[in-house]
Amino acid sequence: MKRTTTTYQLPSGKTTRSIFRYLREWNGLAQPVDRALGCYIIATDPGLYLCVRGASMGFVLPVSVAQRILELVKVEEALLGEMP
35, 39, 47, 58 — which has fewest CB within 10 A? Predict the structure, then answer.
């Protein structure tokens, strides 16, 4: 089997040669953000390319903004998990 020399950039800015790690990390960022915003993912890398459900136009969300939204989603989930 031929070893891959392709490198992929992760949302953190680091690189990997593993397509599986690349997809896992981009999806780990994109999916919670897409659910929180009510959008669907068109593409990733270098940012998140999203389209609002029911609209015909999309927009680009920089990774730094997507990471902040992800942090807020995690805070919300933690708070909801503490509720009786």
Answer: 35
Q: What is the DSSP letter of 40?
A: E
Tens-digit pLDDT profile for residues 24-81: 999 999 999 999 999 999 999 999 999 988 888 899 999 999 999 999 999 988 888 8
Task: Kindly list the distances between the CA atom of residue 3 and the CA atoms of 7, 18, 33, in Å, as whole numbers in the listed order.
Answer: 12, 11, 33
Sequence ranges of the domains in the chain? 8-82
Tokens (6 digits) for 71: 């942090």
Which one, of 22, 25, 60, lies nearest residue 39 by Cα? 60
Which residues sit opposite 61 in a β-bridge? 48
Six token digits for residue 53: 């459900």
Model pTM greater than 0.90? no
